[in-house]
């Protein structure tokens, strides 16, 4: 898709991070956009910053993409508010962290994370595929993660998130042949971002009901304590509740503020990939390095003494050292 001018796009997770930047860039190029998110205030911020060009429109929609009924309502709202019978671009970008351990994380948090990160992609693809097919040209863009080909190293499990992102990767690759046979004018792209400076860790706490670390439940504290211990090297029993809360707050801020790529830079890479028609978009030097390392020696990346991880992460690996 060489140009976005005059096209119609839907962006999930459009209230912040890469989703917001995708909305802003698409609108500035004359593409009408329907942005959805769980956070009404964040959506309002996106709409306020958007500067649609050439008659394009930006609409905002509250939607929990893990809920199929809400996604169906979103689709109907897009059709009605944009007076359209087609969609050219669907960016399945919404995601949330949490459910790090299958053993220690609260089950509700694990399942909520999986339902958003994978279920949202599935629900939106089901709902909007007929509208993509109805367009002269369509592009389905599914955002996975480097954790869709590497599930995290020893001491840093990312169980629910990685399982969901692996599912997104497999689903997207399966569509390559499916679309070629059944809807050859619709393309699909798999986006694999590395570390991008978003507020996903901070926003994830809000989704799981503990936006303020002070509001974390005993179960959430226990789960966070295990991760804080792995990162700090301090035995879990030696960490007070206050130390765990401080670590959780610091992790979210550090992830946002000390990333190699900004959300705007990541969005530019994604859109350049869509323009080029590529089906696999690696976002960031770390994504490319992990991809190459996994292909070269997948066993190495799961060893606690992995020289590859030590090279990639420096003094951040192994956890606690």
Note down, in words, how this protein is organized.
This protein is an alpha/beta fold. The chain has two domains: 8-198 and 261-316, 3-Layer(aba) Sandwich (Rossmann fold); 199-258, no CATH class. 50% of the residues lie in helices and 12% in strands. It has eleven helices and seven strands. The chain has helices spanning 17-28, 40-49, 68-82, 107-134, 159-182, 200-207, 218-232, 241-257, 263-276, 285-296, 307-313; strands at residues 8-12, 32-37, 58-62, 89-92, 138-143, 186-193, 280-283. Helix 4 (107-134) links the parallel strand 4 and strand 5. The radius of gyration is 20 Å and the shape is globular. The termini are far apart. The model is unreliable at 317-321 (pLDDT under 50). Belongs to the short-chain dehydrogenases/reductases (SDR) family. InterPro entries: KR_dom, NAD(P)-bd_dom_sf, SDR_fam.
Q: What gap, in angstroms, lies between the N and C termini?
A: 47 Å
Helical/strand content category: alpha/beta
Radius of gyration: 20 Å
Give the number of helices.
11
CATH H level, superfamily name of the largest domain: NAD(P)-binding Rossmann-like Domain
Number of domains: 2
Number of strands: 7
H-E order: EHEHEHEHEHEHHHHEHH
CATH topology of the largest domain, which one? Rossmann fold
């Amino acid at each position: 898709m060489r140009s976005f001018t005059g096209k119609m796009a839907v962006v999930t997770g459009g209230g912040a991070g890469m989703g917001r930047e995708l909305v802003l860039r698409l609108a500035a190029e004359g593409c009408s956009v329907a942005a959805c998110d769980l956070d009404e205030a964040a959506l309002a911020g996106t709409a306020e910053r958007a500067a649609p060009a050439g008659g394009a429109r930006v609409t905002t929609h509250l939607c929990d993409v893990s809920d199929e009924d809400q996604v169906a309502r979103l689709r109907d709202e897009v059709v009605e508010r944009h007076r359209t019978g087609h969609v050219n671009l669907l960016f399945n970008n919404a995601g949330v962290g949490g459910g790090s351990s299958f053993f220690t994380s609260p089950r509700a948090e694990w399942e909520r994370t999986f339902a958003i990160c994978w279920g949202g992609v599935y629900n939106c693809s089901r709902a909007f595929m007929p509208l993509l097919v109805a367009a002269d040209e369509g592009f389905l863009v599914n955002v996975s993660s480097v954790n869709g080909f590497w599930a995290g190293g020893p001491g840093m499990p990312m169980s629910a998130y990685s399982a969901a992102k692996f599912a997104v990767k497999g689903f997207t690759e399966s569509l390559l042949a499916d679309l070629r046979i059944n809807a050859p004018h619709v393309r699909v792209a798999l986006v694999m971002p590395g570390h991008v400076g978003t507020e996903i860790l901070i926003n994830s706490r809000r989704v799981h009901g503990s936006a303020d670390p002070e509001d974390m439940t005993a179960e959430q504290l226990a789960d966070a304590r295990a991760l804080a211990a792995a990162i700090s090297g301090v035995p879990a029993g030696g960490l007070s509740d206050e130390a765990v809360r401080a670590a959780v707050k610091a992790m979210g801020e550090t992830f946002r503020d000390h990333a190699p790529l900004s959300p705007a830079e990541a969005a530019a890479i994604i859109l350049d990939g869509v323009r080029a028609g590529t089906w696999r978009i690696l976002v960031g030097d770390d994504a490319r390095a992990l991809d190459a390392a996994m292909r070269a020696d997948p066993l190495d990346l799961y060893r606690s003494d992995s020289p590859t991880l030590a090279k990639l992460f420096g003094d951040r690996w192994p956890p606690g050292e």
